[in-house]
Write a structure and sequence with these properties.
The complex is a heterodimer of chains A (233) and B (102).
Chain A lengths: L5 E5 L4 H12 L3 E6 L10 E5 L5 H15 L4 E4 L14 H26 L5 E6 L12 H21 L4 E7 L13 H8 L10 H12 L10 E3 L4
Parallel strand pairs in A: 1-2, 1-4, 2-3, 4-5, 5-6, 6-7
Chain B lengths: L3 H15 L26 H19 L8 H4 L9 H16 L2
Helix pairs in contact in B: 1-2, 1-4
Classes of the chains: A alpha/beta (233), B mainly alpha (102).
């Protein structure tokens, strides 16, 4: 079913993004991905771009290459994201800019350039990454939660702007998953956070891909502007 | 500086790309005088967005020019550059001359 379908996943060098590359290759997608660094031993049938998602010229070049080589893009997954756990009184403005650049500006640029390509066929699926840190109002994650609140707003508004072009825009809101993103968070903080979920466990990569699978299946063409939080948050 | 006629040909290619996607009453004629948007224009706002995207893509494909057409400069003008094919070609020509002159 997925033969000839193309997917672009950002932040593929490690963690969830790296998992999603293999997940969608197994489903028969042609998979493109990007990260700021090169990918070690990229799998066969996967094309990696070394691009910072906040770099407008780089993002445009990447989408132009995908357009020239493949002529279409069916799915965009805006997985690239960074976090920084810190009390607001101790948060340097450079950290604020860094988080907003990757999480907000990067998502905007990818949505814009991907939608330009998708609208040619009047068909496309965009999946953004939110986080439970926003609805849980997590202390110590003010900038991260705020950046992802912006992603939620973008998802909801772009869903309306892009609907006439046949493009759906949704977001998945993962709970903590054991990746580099939460590496530096103390264990007791993590336990307290899991206690606020309806289902008290860490998320798994497959929990996230399950939601993305739902958003991008052909039958989901009437589902847009939605944010699906995992774990019962 | 690029000839105005070259730019108009690129805009015609954008029209060729866009027309099949438009309802019949919005389809554009390949003429410099074709009114794109505003009074007497054929495109609705979404049609104009699609036309601008197609024009940007054709500029890249045919002339290796990377321009964002609907920026603050374009929006703040008293006379919209998106009024006709000719006004848009003129605007693109100006933008290219600016970038060539540094």
């Amino acid at each position: 079913m997925a033969r000839d379908r193309t997917i672009l996943i950002t932040g593929t060098r490690k963690g969830i993004g790296r998992y999603l590359v293999d997940h969608y290759r197994r489903q028969g997608f042609t998979v493109f991905g990007c990260s700021r660094g090169p990918m070690e031993s990229p799998p066969e049938g996967y094309r990696h771009f070394q691009v910072d998602v906040a770099d407008e010229a780089g993002v445009r070049r990447m989408l132009r290459t995908i357009s020239a080589d493949h002529g279409r893009l069916d799915v965009l997954v805006n997985n690239a994201g960074i976090a920084s756990m810190n009390h607001i009184l101790l948060t340097p403005v450079s950290t604020v800019h860094r988080i907003l650049d990757t999480n907000v500006v990067g998502t905007v640029l990818l949505c814009r350039e991907a939608a330009k390509l998708m609208q040619r066929r009047r068909c496309g699926r965009i999946v953004n990454f939110a986080t439970v840190a926003t609805p849980l109002k997590l202390e110590g994650e003010a900038i991260y939660a705020a950046s992802k609140a912006a992603v939620v707003s973008l998802t909801e508004v772009l869903a309306r702007e892009l609907a006439p072009l046949g493009i759906t825009v949704n977001a998945v809101g993962p709970t903590p998953v054991k990746t580099d993103l939460i590496r530096s968070v103390p264990a007791e903080k993590m336990e307290a956070l899991l206690d606020r979920q309806a289902i008290r466990r860490f998320g798994e990569f497959r929990d996230i891909s399950n939601v993305i699978d739902f958003f991008i299946r052909p039958e989901s063409d009437f589902v847009t502007g939605q944010v699906l939080y995992l774990g019962g948050v | 500086m690029r000839e105005q006629n070259d730019i108009i040909q690129i805009l015609y290619a954008a029209i060729d790309e866009l027309n099949p996607q438009l309802p019949p009453e919005q389809r554009l004629e390949k003429s410099a005088a074709t009114v794109l948007f505003g009074e007497g224009g054929r495109l609705d706002s979404l049609g104009l967005v699609s036309f601008i995207v197609a024009a940007e893509q054709k500029l890249t494909e045919m002339a290796d020019i990377s321009l964002t057409l609907a920026d603050e400069k374009a929006m703040s003008r008293r006379n919209s550059p998106f009024r006709t094919v000719a006004t848009l070609a003129e605007y693109i020509g100006e933008r290219l001359a600016e970038s060539e002159n540094g």
